[in-house]
Amino acid sequence: MSIGGGVMRPRSKLPCIALMLILAVGTLMSGCTSDRSPSPMMSSPSPALSFAEGSPLKEPAQLVSHNGLLRADLVVEKRRVDLGGHMVWAFTYNGSYMPPTLRIRPGDKMELAFKNTLNEVTNLHVHGLHVSPSGNADNIFLHIHPGQTFHYSFQFPGTLRAGTYWYHPHPHVTSAPQVAGGMSGILIVDGLQQYLPANLRHITEHVIALKDFQLQGDAIKTQNLHIGAPTNRTVNGQLNPTIRIRPGETQLWRLANISANIYYNVHLQGQKFHVIAHDGTPVDRIWTADSLLLAAGARFDVLVQGGPAGRTQLQTLAYQTGPGGNSFPQTTLATLASQGPSMPPAALPTTPFAPTVDLSHEPIATRRTVVFSENKAGTKFYINGKQFDPNRVDIRAKLNTVEEWTVVNESDEEHSFHVHTNHFQLMSINGRPHHGHGLQDVASLPAKGRFVIRMHFKDYTGKTVLHCHILNHEDRGMMAVLDIEK
């Protein structure tokens, strides 16, 4: 089930004469870049290194709440990490390229002593979580300066939905470099298993965190990022790890695109994904798909059943984000090894699954049009014709109301639409009704297309944001301030 066009078209070529002249004598100029795939003359990271592949999938370490509280230290630092057998410099949380999974339950409190040892400003965003956007909670307007330790405190509501989320930095103009450098990790809200039948409540689960890196010398590339440049796609920071399953066994996989910019069109050869949650919201009916498009920032919780004994590939299929966008090639992400004593496949639930959340019959307080656009060079990005200004409020909404937004894309490439604080219901895409069986916080906005969403502003007031989750686009202006008022 994919949202957005998959038609392969030639990429637009954006000549930059000064850059070509400099490259002709072997020197990279840093100023004239766009987000599109680099031409053969443009410098790109070397994809030619030989990496160790095929080791067993490793689960990230976990920091788990106890008695309603998760209290932990989270240290941001630049350090050398082992990626595929090579020691490279990366931005890390707690010293790891694949940092600890934060694991909570609805109603929990999370207190983090957040220490910044970088030589630049950073902060922390808990992506998709319904929590206050103000104070020392999910406040992306905060600046944690070099050497500073800041004490984050998140009080989550008892109504928090179970599923998979993630965390990452959100400082304007440096979000993409920091996430691309390695700063992204998984956050799980427990409770999803309660919707499964008793025989599936204790099945093996795997974090399948999708993130990529480009190399420049002995460091992960963080500057002058080209989205379509050759890159190394990883699962939990590993290249082509082996995931083991027994024939007939049912597993829960938490698929999460926690990369800075790229899309993943995930496909498991010979298998189907059984979707039980989308962007941290349990679905009201399990649905199946041969492939799942994970735009930047998106997540799916899925059930997977082991096939006959043998090996198959977890892939990301070729995908293009429009004539003005980027082409992502087909790549193997991991190898699924079906081995050991077989089990009778469990009957999977269909309907009903989780309680239905449907805004289609709610009274609409306000209807708005939100327009995403960019300049011809692909170097500046806009929402409603304006670039991001943290001191300007672009949209004012009222607490406890439902709004309907028509989101229009005037550009020739898809954008990964994302709103903080509240999830939304995707009602239609290019005029055709859409039934996603739940709420979401990310949706791919078709090139030269539009969709309609409805959003219920609940529980929290304050300034928050909406933006393109292709972080190169966000950093270059494609973000707006949303102020939720009483």
Describe the protein in words.
This protein is mainly beta and 486 residues long. Among the domains are: 62-192, Cupredoxins -  blue copper proteins (Immunoglobulin-like, Sandwich); 366-485, Sandwich (Immunoglobulin-like), CATH 2.60.40.420. It is built from 3 helices and 35 strands. The chain has helices at 17-24, 175-180, 471-475, and strands at residues 62-64, 69-83, 86-93, 101-104, 109-116, 125-127, 149-155, 163-168, 185-189, 205-213, 215-216, 219-220, 232-235, 242-245, 250-257, 264-268, 273-278, 281-289, 291-294, 299-305, 310-316, 319-320, 327-328, 331-338, 366-374, 381-383, 395-398, 402-409, 415-419, 424-429, 432-433, 442-445, 450-456, 462-468, 479-485. The strands form 8 sheets. Strands 13-10-15-20-17-18 form a 6-stranded mixed sheet, with no helix packed on it. A hairpin with a 6-residue loop joins β25 and β26. The longest helix is centred in the first third of the chain and has 8 residues, at 17-24. Mean pLDDT is 90; it is low at 1-32 and 39-48.
Main sheet properties: 6 strands, mixed
Outline type: globular
Q: What does the average pLDDT come to?
A: 90
Helix content: under 10%
> Considering the protein shown, what is the CATH homologous superfamily of the domain at 62-192?
Cupredoxins -  blue copper proteins
Q: Which range does the strand content fall in?
A: 35-45%
CATH architecture descriptor text of the domain at 62-192: Sandwich
Return the CATH class of the domain at 62-192: Mainly Beta
- Helix count? 3
Question: Given the helix and strand composition, which structural class is it?
Answer: mainly beta
* Spatial ordering of strands, largest sheet: 13-10-15-20-17-18
Rg, alpha carbons: 21 Å
Please report the distance between the alpha carbons of the first and last residues: 38 Å
> Uncertain spans, ≥5 residues at pLDDT below 50?
1-32, 39-48
- According to CATH, the fold-level topology of the domain at 62-192 is Immunoglobulin-like
State the total count of DSSP E strands: 35
